[in-house]
Structures are given as structure tokens and as C-alpha cells.
Design a protein that fits this description.
Number of helices: 2
Helix content: 10-25%
Low-confidence stretches: none
Number of strands: 8
Mean pLDDT: 85
Distance between the termini: 51 Å
């Protein structure tokens, strides 16, 4: 069912894609209208590179979402995405030279080690408590150039243990 008819040269934003069609959004009579359009219903003068770029952006978005869920950093992430993934850096180094500006973010990586201790509860009974203690075991270095991650370096001092947390 048609939601609206857009006028020529109206700005329309592509906000989603599927094999069956495209999710678009535009402003119509002071309201935001969004809906799906079939590929056959698109105007013939639309640049096909637009959809190629949109597919690439979607693949990048999906890859970054997986990296954030796994609390890891990959090339191509923005500083905001890195912050969502591993938190704020402990140290920031910025450089400016003839090639432009670059940033380096440094994080300390930790291993959580359980510590056991006895405490007395409110009834005077001895209770075993487990406390996790963070022990620094290395560094994560993230280099940015032109607003995206260009390299990620992780150094470990405890090579025996793979249970690493950042911040």
C-alpha cells in the first residue's frame, strides 16, 4: 500500500536493505515517512553505485557489531565504536605530521584471578567469600589515522593465560 508520493529531486534516505527491497525514509508534509520499496519501483536514473556502497556499509556495520559484542577491536572502527567495545583508553597519544594527524590509544589488559577469604556473617558464622582481583598482564594499543583504526597491537606478559579483559 503506497504511503506517499515523493516529488522529483526529493531527498530520500536509504536506511535498510533486503533481497526483496529497500527501506527508505523521507520527509513528507512535515512528517517522517518510512517504508519498503521494491527494486522494480525505483526510478531508472538512480546510480547503482549507491546500492553497492550501501551493501558495503551494511557489511561493515555488521562486522563492527560482532566485534563490539566480543569486546574486540578491528581495523576500520571509529573511535566511538572502539569506546563502545573496550571502553575509554588509559593513555592517548596524538601526532601531527605532513601526512596528517594520528592517534594512539593505549589500554592495559588484565587477568581476573579469584581470591578466597573467610568472613563472618551477621549470625557469627564463617562464610567463604570469593573476590576477583585484576592483575595487569599486557597492553592493547590501537592506532587511528583519518578517524579509523589502522592497526591493533596486543602485547602480553602472561602468555600462559588467555582470559584477558580490557578495563
Amino acid at each position: 500500500m503506497p504511503l506517499a508520493t515523493f516529488y522529483p529531486n526529493q531527498k530520500i534516505e536509504l536506511i535498510g536493505m533486503s533481497p526483496e527491497g529497500y527501506l527508505i525514509q523521507a520527509y513528507y508534509r512535515n512528517n517522517t515517512v518510512s517504508g519498503w520499496i521494491h527494486p522494480a519501483d525505483l526510478p531508472s536514473d538512480i546510480d547503482p553505485a549507491l546500492f553497492t556502497k550501501a551493501k558495503e556499509n551494511q557489511v561493515h556495520h555488521d562486522t563492527v557489531a560482532v566485534a563490539i559484542a566480543n569486546k574486540s577491536v578491528i581495523q576500520g572502527m571509529t573511535p566511538d565504536e572502539v569506546t563502545q567495545s573496550v571502553g575509554s583508553p588509559e593513555q592517548v597519544i596524538s601526532r601531527t605530521d605532513l601526512n596528517g594527524s594520528s592517534l594512539t590509544w593505549i589500554y592495559t589488559t588484565y587477568k581476573e584471578v579469584p581470591q578466597y577469604t573467610y568472613a563472618v556473617d551477621r549470625f557469627g558464622r564463617a562464610v567463604l567469600q570469593t573476590i576477583s582481583v585484576k592483575i595487569p598482564i599486557g597492553q592493547l594499543t590501537v592506532d587511528f589515522s583519518n578517524g579509523v583504526v589502522t592497526s591493533v597491537t596486543e602485547s602480553k606478559t602472561d602468555l600462559q593465560n588467555q582470559d584477558i579483559q580490557t578495563n
